[in-house]
Amino acid sequence: MAKEIRTEIIIHARAEKVWVILTDFENYPNWNPFITSVEPEEGNKITVKLTPPGGKTMTFKPTILTRQENQKLKWLGTVLFKGLFDGEHTFELRENKNGTVTFVQSEQFKGIFAGLFNPEKTINGFNEMNKKLKELAERE
């Protein structure tokens, strides 16, 4: 069973500016209400701490699948082992050719327990992060 959630927001800034903010993981605790920590590790692994609104902080150790400068960052996280509950998280920047960029944040959940997952808090976390990213990128 699979589930997918997706949010997007239009940001009045260039993709390069949004990308710099998005990939400056050291600053996440200063502005990001949802993904409060990202720590790169050896072998394209990272440690990610998520705090959904009204939920408990969770720590994952996903593997980076895609990193396309100024366009896309995607990682795959698993709970215990692959196939149980896997999440493929994607950040995507789409140029709108009018001085704006559409920021898309999505996650596809797969595995035996994916059908039991209630995405409401995660969607709220995505939306909060999107708004804060927009505020930061449009500040100057």
Q: Explain this structure to me?
A:
It is a single chain. The protein is an alpha+beta fold and 140 residues long. It has a single domain, classed as 2-Layer Sandwich (Alpha-D-Glucose-1,6-Bisphosphate, Chain A, domain 4), CATH 3.30.530.20. 22% of the residues lie in helices and 41% in strands. The chain contains three helices and eight strands; from the N terminus they run E-H-H-E-E-E-E-E-E-E-H. The strands form two sheets. A five-stranded antiparallel sheet has the order 1-8-7-6-5, with helices on one face. A three-stranded antiparallel sheet has the order 2-3-4. Helix 1 crosses helix 3. The mean pLDDT is 91.
Secondary structure layout:
Layout lengths: L1 E10 L3 H8 L5 H4 L3 E6 L5 E5 L7 E3 L2 E6 L3 E7 L7 E10 L5 E10 L9 H19 L2
Antiparallel strand pairs: 1-8, 2-3, 3-4, 5-6, 6-7, 7-8
- In CATH, the homologous superfamily goes by the name START domain
Percent of residues in beta strands = 35-45%
Instruction: Output mean pLDDT.
Output: 91
| Radius of gyration, whole Å | 15 Å
Structural class: alpha+beta
- The assigned CATH architecture is 2-Layer Sandwich
Q: In sequence order, what are the helices and strands, one letter per element?
A: EHHEEEEEEEH
CATH topology heading: Alpha-D-Glucose-1,6-Bisphosphate, Chain A, domain 4
DSSP helix count? 3
Helix percent band: 10-25%
Number of β-strand runs: 8
Task: Work out the count of structural domains.
Answer: 1
- General shape: globular
Instruction: Detail the poorly predicted runs.
Output: none
How far apart the termini lie comes to 44 Å
Largest sheet: 5 strands, antiparallel
